[in-house]
Amino acid sequence: MVCDNSRVNIGVYRILLEKYKCDNSENKVLLKDGLFPIFLMFDPVHLIKNIRNNWYSFSAFTLPAINISLDVFSVVLEEKSKAVWSVLNTVYNSEKDNVSTLRKAPSLNQAVLHPDNKKLNVALALAVFDDKVPHAIKSYLPNNNNAVSTANFVFLWNIWCLT
Question: Which residues is 39 bridged to in the sheet?
Fold first, then answer.
């Protein structure tokens, strides 16, 4: 069973897990007939849209401290660092007059940054978390703490959800 993370769906999942949970699983229930387990999952695309829409609506997220070091990359977020939506606008405004093939973050455009009545559009939500965006942010605003935090936030969401 796959759904978005609305309050009603979370409540239904909670009831199903309390009543029918099996095998100490965090997301598997076995109904009365017992023939087939049902796995409860949230749709990652809906989660991405929710993250993007809340970030757009509130303008900034205060982030927890994160320190991830792997062979391929490392990300450090200081306690209470911020992912700031206006950083994306700054990057877009820095390169909006360039030919799209010469832009560092070609996925950012007016519709992506100001979705207004298109908040449910998956492609617009995914464009914010494009893998080129963090590199563009760090390129245009290398010494801005909020920009670096924003770039790391976008990078982590790209790694966690889109790859």
Answer: 28
